Amino acid sequence: MSNPASDNHRSPQQAAHEQALGEVSDVLLNLEHTLARSKKALVRVRKSGGDNNIELALTEMIADLERSHKRFMQDTYYAGDSLRLI
Predict the structure, then answer these.
(1) How does pLDDT run along the chain (86 residues), one tens digit per residue?
(2) Smallest Cα–Cα separation from 70: which of 31, 40, 42?
(3) Which of 37, 40, 60, 59 is nearest to 48 (CA)?
(4) Are 59 and 21 in contact (CB under 8 A)?
(5) Which of 42, 83, 86, 84 is nearest to 63 (CA)?
(6) Cα–Cα dist 12/8, whole Å
(7) 32: left (phi over 0), alpha (psi -120 to 50) or beta
(8) Cα separation values, 8 from 1, 2, 3, 11, 17, Å
(9) Is the whole model's pTM more than 0.90, yes or no?
């Protein structure tokens, strides 16, 4: 729960930044869940002797998700005040 007394000391920019970080946290949580689910699916497909194309697709998806997770973390939490040019 938020402390009403401490809310009075935050600027609108600080409150917006905290809200944005909350959104980032939610996205990261979803990425982590998707990554874990993809790994679980790959194990199950391999165990069942599944389709080679599905294994390759899942393997590529896992690598893409890991890269996306790392990049998103670096671009948000570790970016500091610098502006990233795309």
Answers:
(1) 555 555 568 899 999 989 999 999 999 999 999 999 999 999 999 999 879 999 999 999 999 999 999 999 998 888 776 666 55
(2) 31
(3) 40
(4) no
(5) 42
(6) 10
(7) alpha
(8) 15, 11, 9, 8, 15
(9) no
